[in-house]
Each structure stands twice: as structure tokens, then as C-alpha cells.
Specification:
Blueprint (H helix, E strand, L loop, with lengths): L1 H6 L1 H16 L19 H9 L3 E2 L6 E2 L7 H11 L5 H29 L4 H15 L2 H8 L3 H23 L2 H13 L7 H22 L2 H18 L1 H13 L8 H16 L3 H4 L10 E5 L2 E4 L2 H6 L3 H23 L3 H5 L1 H12 L6 H10 L1 H6 L3 H32 L1
Antiparallel strand pairs: 1-2, 3-4
Length: 416
């Protein structure tokens, strides 16, 4: 037991810290609610009916063709419903978010350890541990979990694992690895509750896989397995994809002509646009820092007021920029070392930065061109932050691991 604990000390420490963050955000006797809230536990029978027959939502107005992919929730119910026999209703939604808070950083830990460095060394363990911490303890993750919505939490938890086992399958070609990837793909499906998040992920995922295969310079050999990964991803998600495709084909402008679109979409995008700067990008600060919440007595107050106060400290801002500097150093060092995964992740980085900056320089003219000429692009990406920030946070976490590795190597040489 002592040997096991010592061997896995960094992993166990990461899990412990994630669990402590979760417990610090649990208020005994309360129900986690608000924002885009899903509460299957209030009436599982009704919820199952709505997700199993989710193409038409009779509970919306006089009945409406579903704009969201309600069927994607079926995957999450394989976790959520069994937990309802163990946990009280008040703890169910908390428990799902706490599970994702733990799984995401652990996935980053294994991705760094098994894919980026592929070696058992103290330097690797430290780098993987700190990368997992970075993935957990940054302003981008804070914003996603401060206003919790299951699909973003699912995306946060599943992204590292999907990348981990897709690369494992390209490397080892084992059916068992493909099976594990397929199971993770199924349980990640609820990120598609609003399908644009899944489409943003899947497009980025394909770009990364193609980039990785090209960097490996073994594209012809990898092509078959690449097609299998793509086919498995699509086939496993068909249970919600087909209803969503039906909606897209029969939409007839329902979304673009809706009241919420005319009242909210431009405002939503303007909020993202105002934070599309390099200085905000480097610390993952986005539109929720300019968002309001109702506090009673017909008054609204800043949603993240306590965190805005926290960021007024010059020391805190400098620490945030320092971490970004470490990631930038890691990016440069990984390219110099010709690390294939880090090189392929440049595609993730480029996509994430492009959508974060949106209409701002230096690529704003391209973004405006797409937004002005493609209606779906305009509506689907009114919140670029929510669609691409987790991909960006993951990528920076990996480069942060490489930066830490560089610092450790440099420090050891100085010591010698």
C-alpha cells in the first residue's frame, strides 16, 4: 500500500485538491440550481419522456420543434439515474459537477504523462500534476463552473480523455482501446445538449487528429484508423445527431426570427467581443466579468463581483501573466524538441485564439467575413467563449506542462 501511495502520490494529490475545491463549493441543505438548469431528479419519468421523444417539445409554448438536442441527455442519465438511488435529490446535481471537476484534471494528468512525455520520471509527474492543476484552477474554468451547465462540465471532463484514447488507438491499433474511446464518446454526448458546442468540438477534434497524423509523417498508415475514429464518433452520436439534423433541415428561420434572437444575440456577441483582447486572453477573462445577476429588491449586481475585486490586485494579474509566459515558453520548447503532440496541438491553439479574439485584430476581418455571410455561423457562435474556451484551456495546460518541464531541466543544469 505504501508503495502504491508513493508511486501515485501526484495523482492522488490532484484528486484530493479537486475534491477539496468541490467540497468548498457545496452548501449543505441546498439544491444547485439557476442559470441553464437541468433537474431530471424532480420528475425522472417526465424527463425520460422528453429526452426519448425529444424532437418535439410540447412543453415549450404551444409545442415546438426542439432546437436543442435533448436526446443527448440519455447518455448522462446512465450516470445520473443510478446515482439517484444512492444520493438525496439535493445532492444529485452537485455530485455530477463535482465528478466532472475531478475527471477533467485527472484526464490532463494522464494525457501529459502518457502522450506528451511518455516516460516515468519525476519531471514528468510534476509537469503532469501542475498541468492538471492549471486546467482546474484558471479563470476560464471558474467561469464555466460559476454558472454551471451540464454540457460545459461534460465537455471539460471528457475532452482530455477523448484525446488521450484517440491517440492511444492511433498508436497501438488495439480494439480494446477503440472500445474505451467509444465508451467515453458515448458518455461525452451530453455536451451536445446545445449541439453547436459538439460541432465546435468535433471540428476542432478532426483538425487536431489530421494534424497529428501529418506530423507523424505516417498518414497513409494512420488513415484507416483515423476513419474508424471519425466513424465511431459519428455513429455513437447518431441518437441525438439525427433529430438535430432534422431540426436544422426543417428550421425555416425559427431561431433567427425568434424574440430572444432579436433581443439578445447581438448583445451576447458584443459582450464576447469586448473581451476579445490579448490581455484578457492571457488570463482567460471573458464576458461573465461584465454580466449581472439579480440580487433582489429590483436590483442587479455584477455576477463575479468578488472575483473582479480579486483581479484588482496587481500581484494576482502578474501571477496570471506569469503562468501564460510559462505556457508560451513551453510552446516554443516543445516545437524545438519536435514533440509531435505539442506540434499538432497548434491547430487547437490557433482555433481557440481565432474565436476568442473574434472580430478584433489581427484576424477580425476573416471572422467578420464568415459572420456576415454565413447565417448559421452568426447564430451558432454568438458566444465564442463558451464554444472554444475549454479547448483553449486544455491546449494551454499542455504547453504549461512543457514549460514546467523546461524550467525543471534548466534549474537542474544550473544546480550542476
Amino acid at each position: 500500500m505504501k508503495n502504491y501511495l508513493y508511486k501515485n502520490r501526484f495523482l492522488l494529490l490532484l484528486v484530493t485538491i479537486s475534491a477539496l475545491v468541490s467540497s468548498a463549493n457545496y452548501d449543505v441543505g441546498t439544491i444547485l440550481s439557476g442559470w441553464d438548469t437541468l433537474h431530471p431528479e424532480f420528475n425522472f419519468g417526465l424527463y425520460f419522456k422528453r429526452i426519448l421523444f425529444g424532437v418535439w417539445q410540447e412543453n415549450q409554448g404551444l409545442g415546438a420543434l426542439a432546437t436543442q438536442s435533448h436526446a443527448s441527455e440519455i447518455a448522462r442519465m446512465f450516470i445520473y439515474y443510478p446515482l439517484s438511488f444512492i444520493l438525496p435529490d439535493s445532492l444529485l446535481r452537485y455530485s455530477y459537477f463535482f465528478l466532472t471537476i475531478i475527471l477533467g484534471p485527472v484526464g490532463v494528468y494522464f494525457f501529459v504523462k502518457q502522450i506528451v512525455f511518455k516516460e516515468n520520471h519525476l519531471k514528468t509527474e510534476v509537469s503532469a500534476f501542475l498541468a492538471g492543476l492549471f486546467y482546474l484552477l484558471n479563470l476560464g474554468t471558474l467561469q464555466h463552473f460559476y454558472v454551471p451547465f451540464e454540457m460545459f462540465a461534460t465537455h471539460f471532463a471528457s475532452l482530455p480523455w477523448l484525446l488521450l484514447f484517440s491517440i492511444h488507438y492511433l498508436d497501438d491499433k488495439k480494439p480494446k482501446t477503440l472500445l474505451i474511446f467509444s465508451v467515453i464518446t458515448f458518455f461525452s454526448a451530453s455536451m451536445a445538449h446545445t449541439s453547436t458546442l459538439w460541432f465546435a468540438f468535433f471540428g476542432s477534434f478532426l483538425t487536431f487528429l489530421f494534424s497529428y497524423c501529418l506530423v507523424r509523417k505516417n498518414f497513409k498508415s494512420d488513415f484507416k484508423r483515423l476513419i474508424i475514429i471519425i466513424a465511431a464518433s459519428i455513429l455513437i452520436n447518431l441518437f441525438w445527431l439525427l433529430p438535430n439534423i432534422y431540426f436544422i433541415a426543417n428550421d425555416n428561420g425559427a431561431v433567427s426570427n425568434s424574440k430572444i434572437h432579436s433581443l439578445f444575440s447581438d448583445e451576447a456577441f458584443a459582450q464576447n467581443q469586448s473581451f476579445g483582447t490579448i490581455k484578457d486572453l492571457l488570463i482567460f477573462k471573458n464576458f461573465l466579468f461584465n454580466w449581472g445577476e439579480y440580487v433582489g429588491n429590483n436590483k442587479f449586481a455584477p455576477l463575479l463581483d468578488e472575483w473582479s475585486l480579486y483581479l484588482q490586485s496587481s500581484a494576482v494579474i502578474l501571477i496570471g501573466y506569469f503562468f501564460s509566459l510559462v505556457a508560451i515558453v513551453g510552446l516554443i520548447y516543445s516545437i524545438i524538441k519536435k514533440n509531435k503532440v505539442a506540434t499538432a496541438l497548434l491547430s487547437f491553439l490557433g482555433i481557440g485564439i481565432f474565436f476568442w479574439l473574434n472580430t478584433n485584430p489581427p484576424f477580425g476581418f476573416i471572422y467578420n467575413l464568415l459572420r456576415d455571410n454565413i447565417p448559421f455561423f452568426r447564430e451558432a457562435l454568438r458566444f465564442p467563449f463558451t464554444k472554444f474556451s475549454i479547448i483553449l484551456i486544455f491546449t494551454v495546460s499542455i504547453y504549461f506542462a512543457y514549460g514546467v518541464s523546461f524550467i525543471i531541466i534548466a534549474a537542474s543544469k544550473i544546480k550542476e
